[in-house]
């Protein structure tokens, strides 16, 4: 059976890689959406249901970062922008997916949240991004619990150093906890797409609650 999926943040980076890996380009709808706006998220899901009749998968990948400045120099506006998109936006998409998935027949579906290595260990000068990614852990765990009675399965993929526009700076050297600047290895972003596709194709009786995929030699284990 052909499944329908919503991928947020599909214009660039990880979201784009996942959308491409699906091989569904000929059937894809491109719907510009502001995930931080209730009406925009509602319109996205309404359009998907109108086109396909149901939503089987949501991959929550829309996200932004704040400038890498000292904590005391981060503005309230910069903080709010990251929280609005990375955390509130993900919640709004999860909430709308629940509404659609519990009402459709057959009911249920799968939600995969794009977490990050930063959901477990921060980088220097990253308080807004790191705080939201820690928040994503809470969204995933709670939505996984609340989704059980509706046959909605929720998991999370934590990605480290995939070769995207956002991570290109890793190859040039980035600050470490020690204060040094070091080059970090990158992995092919297509591997992330394959990892999400694996999670997405599992039967609803099975869930990968958390999955970490990263460049083998990136400084995550032992960071700090």
With strands numbered from the N-terminus, the spatial order across the biggest sheet is 1-2-3-4-7
| Proportion of beta-strand residues | 5-15%
What CATH architecture do you see?
Answer: 3-Layer(aba) Sandwich
Task: Estimate the mean pLDDT confidence.
Answer: 93
Q: Give the tally of β-strands.
A: 7
Structural class: alpha/beta
CATH class: Alpha Beta
Can you summarize the main beta sheet? 5 strands, parallel
User: How helix-rich are the residues, as a percent range?
Assistant: 25-40%
The count of helical stretches stands at 5
Radius of gyration, taken over Cα atoms and rounded to an integer in Å: 17 Å
Q: How far do the termini sit from each other?
A: 47 Å
Instruction: Could you tell me the CATH topology label.
Output: Rossmann fold
Question: Can you tell me the residue ranges where pLDDT is under 50 for at least 5 consecutive residues?
Answer: none
Task: Please give the domain count.
Answer: 1
What's the name of the CATH homologous superfamily? NAD(P)-binding Rossmann-like Domain
- Give the SSE order as H and E letters: EHHEHEHEEEHE
* General form: globular
């Amino acid at each position: 059976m052909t499944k329908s999926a919503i991928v947020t943040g599909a214009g660039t980076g990880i979201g784009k890689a996942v959308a491409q890996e699906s091989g569904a380009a000929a059937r894809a709808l491109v719907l510009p959406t502001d995930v931080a706006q209730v009406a925009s998220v509602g319109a996205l899901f309404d359009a998907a249901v109108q086109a396909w009749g149901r939503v089987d998968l949501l991959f929550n990948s829309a996200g932004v970062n704040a400038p890498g400045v000292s904590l005391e120099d981060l503005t309230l506006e910069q903080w709010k922008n990251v929280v609005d998109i990375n955390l509130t936006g993900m919640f709004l998409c999860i909430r709308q997916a629940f509404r659609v998935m519990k009402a459709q027949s057959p009911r249920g579906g799968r939600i995969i949240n794009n977490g990050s290595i930063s959901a477990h260990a921060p980088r220097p000068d990253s308080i807004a991004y790191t705080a939201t990614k820690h928040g994503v852990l809470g969204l995933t765990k709670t939505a996984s619990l609340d989704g059980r009675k509706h046959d909605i399965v929720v998991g999370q993929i934590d990605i480290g150093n995939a070769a995207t526009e956002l991570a290109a700076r890793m190859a040039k050297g980035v600050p470490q906890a020690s204060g040094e600047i070091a080059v970090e290895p990158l992995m092919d972003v297509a591997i992330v797409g394959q990892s999400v596709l694996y999670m997405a194709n599992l039967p609803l009786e099975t869930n990968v609650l958390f999955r970490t995929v990263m460049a083998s030699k990136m400084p995550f284990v032992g960071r700090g």
